[in-house]
């Protein structure tokens, strides 16, 4: 009698504020300063910030909406990355490669000023600047992270395949991404990361 | 020595205006009044509009960005649906079910006032109202079309899997969707469509 019919999800209206609040979604998660051990190059600056603000200081948060995890489903949400620096590095997310590495991800900037930092395992690096109304459709096979180079929260709307998953360890295992985004007067610049030892699949 | 490595696409920055213009994409296509034969219920009103405005009158247009069509790629773009009515029906897109029917699609409203009209083959119908900042993550298996119920262009940002494809014939073959969105004083209402004969897979 064939496979049972899968349940078809009910469409839900989402309300998305340029400040990153989203209603109609299913989940919010917070990333705190204490979760980001090892992310920034300047460990002394990280320890000093931890002493000053505490491990519970909010660094970024994500709202998302998930239906059942069918192969064709999309996860939609907002990411809000608070501004700041640790040493000379701008605030950033942990970053990831999708566990199914050919899965793309759309980021559309709702507010703030950020950079999408991108590496391929085989040696390419890019930095795409995002301001409100700009977007980047991150192709498959690109490790990517958001960096806030402005004074306000950097907020993006994102969507990606529900089966994509995230591999966060690939960056930590490599000593960080190939480049870092650091202060340059009032602006930002992309510099080589001397602690980067190559991604696992190229070692 | 194994499969050749696929080419990895280069990330491209997109600039998206709330009026629907998009730079950085690869394509624009226009849908003209003459292309929409059979879409509206009131054939006399359609013929009159055709006589008045001509077959080349622009009704809606789409910008999109496509990389290579890998299984994990996303197509990203904007849809701009011009306002108006044909008889008592508000301006609408042809609508589609994805050819791979479990593929979802995100629509995020950039400007204007619209309705996402949705049907499942097995009998469910929904109408999700969209104004700037609202979005709907259309789940797989939902036939969907945009309707402009406002006085200005209705503009959405969309993303969907590059392998999804579109089946437009499913609506035409069914005599239209299960409901129509018509004028109701200054507003809109959803009414049953008497010409709908059921979708092919349920007949």
TrEMBL record, chains A, B:
This protein's UniProt keywords: Gluconeogenesis, Glycolysis
Q: Which GO terms describe its cellular component?
A: cytoplasm
Q: Which domain of life is it from?
A: Bacteria
Record flagged with keyword ATP-binding: no
Q: Does the keyword Transcription regulation apply?
A: no
Its recorded reaction(s) are: alpha-D-glucose 6-phosphate = beta-D-fructose 6-phosphate
Reported EC number(s) for this entry are 5.3.1.9
Cite the annotated pathway: Carbohydrate degradation; glycolysis; D-glyceraldehyde 3-phosphate and glycerone phosphate from D-glucose: step 2/4
| Record CDD domains | cupin_PGI (cd02218)
Q: Which Pfam families match?
A: GPI
The GO terms describing molecular function are:
glucose-6-phosphate isomerase activity
The GO biological-process annotations, alphabetized, read as: gluconeogenesis; glycolytic process
Q: Which family does it belong to?
A: Belongs to the archaeal-type GPI family.
- Tell me what this protein is called: glucose-6-phosphate isomerase
What organism is this sequence from? Microbacterium sediminis
